[in-house]
Amino acid sequence: MSEGILAVLLSIGLMSGCFFLFKIPAIPLTKSDRKLPGLSVIIPARDEEESLPNLLKSLKKQTYRPLEIIVVDDASTDDTALIAAAYDAKVLSTEESELESGGKSAACWIGAEKAKGEWLLFLDADTYFVNDRALESVADQYLNQQDKGLLSIQPFHEIKKVYETASIVPNIMVMAGVNRYSLLGGQIEGRGAFGPFLLTTRKQYEESGGHRTILDSHMDDIELAKRYKETGLPVNVFSGKEVVHFRMFPESFSQLVNGWTKSLIHGSEGTNPLVLLSIALWIAGICLSTTILIGTLVTFGPTGILLPSLIYFFYCVQFRWLMNKVGQFPLWTAGFPVIYIIVFLFLYLFSVFQVKILKRVRWRNREIKF
Question: Would you state the pLDDT for residue 119?
């Protein structure tokens, strides 16, 4: 392949990396001077004794205090229910419901049925607020959109262990997959929402059918957003940077693999073709730049790698730019984009195998069938 063609391909790859995740809106930290309605916080939880205290502590510190906090215990085998009660949360159980099965959607519906607030906020147990005015700021943003429809936030990802860096590219893909943040902006129709944080009014939740209509779905964020759109209600999505963070898979690498396996393949199915193409070209550019750098080093030694190193450096800088949009990751990870691309491809192919071929995934000691 000629040098001219290689230069064109590498340039296209770099430009594509700027296309699919160009700008993500975030919730600005504000002090609201408006009267805020009663808020019910609903937290579906299964075996979340490690993560739950962080969320409940952060809720206690909020300037906008919820009317109630409801933790719906989804057949946990640990002390999730006891911990929730210790923080004065109202504890419900999927096992004591008339619903035939449990799961996240069932837990959300059970909590919504018992909630008293005018607004409903569904939070994953591994989320937490990083500023005392975070919830007040989110509420103010919701009022700015006349409390219409669904306000959803993808929490900013934090990590503590090296294996957790394997979530870098999947997190980038989750954000890109909603089709809202590309260089074309609103010219591409958005899809879905983010399951870890969903804010709505009770009235609109009931109008859309809520989680009751998606009890069998394993992608509640995508399906609930679809119900809202079918009802003629807007769906607005934001980054949680400086407001809501989470630590997704703190227990082990196997937890990380299982967690991404159950969602990656379904999450990618509705991604816009232009977004998919730009992602593919970006991945190809990273792999090509790495191959050229290694090949040049082997063939010509250190004296011939100046230009390939410069190109590879540009891709590393871009990789850092992208990861900073979705989480807080160590600086050194930017130097190994191809490693994280390979990890992502492994997770994606494993997801295809488990979901499409075996049609089952194991998560939180429960077998999920597809």
Answer: 98
